[in-house]
Amino acid sequence: MKPILSKAQLDYMKAKTKFEDKAKVMEKKIEDARRVHDEITQEIMEGLVLETGFHDAFNELTMAENALISWSHSTIKHEKTYRDNKAEIEMMYDKLNDDPQMRARIVQLAMRIR
């Protein structure tokens, strides 16, 4: 039986898959550009980012992560674990914009909420 996921979780999974697909295309385009150009300049890189849709996929992933984090923060407040560890959990959420590892950890935890 498949787990039931929230809209925020489904949107995040979709955005992550799209981002990973665009990243693969971007890597291929960079390799192709290396064969043609002696050096990959910032201008060439910016063109590839726009051409592949990598930038849009990154922005969509960021928005999906933010929605997932917001959803998880409001959802977890109804759990006994949250009430027992409120200070520690709130500290984690407070650090998520300053600490990329904490952000990744919260996203991982949010994907495990059922």
- The percent range for helix content is over 70%
> For the terminal residues, how far apart are their CA atoms?
13 Å
Helix count, per DSSP? 6
Secondary structure tally: strands: 0
Structural class: mainly alpha
Structural shape = elongated
Contiguous runs where pLDDT drops below 50 for at least 5 residues = none
Q: Mind describing the biggest β-sheet?
A: none
Helix and strand succession? HHHHHH
Strand content: under 5%
Kindly report the oligomeric state of this protein: single chain
Rounded mean pLDDT is 94
Radius of gyration (CA) equals 18 Å
Q: Could you please describe the fold and organization of this structure?
A:
It is a single chain. With 114 residues, the protein is an all-alpha fold. It is 80% helix and 0% strand. The protein contains 6 helices and no strands. Helix 1 (7-36) packs across helix 2 (42-52), helix 1 runs antiparallel to helix 3 (54-76) and helix 3 (54-76) crosses helix 6 (100-111). The chain starts with 6 loop residues before the first helix and ends with a helix. The model has no long low-confidence stretch (mean pLDDT 94).
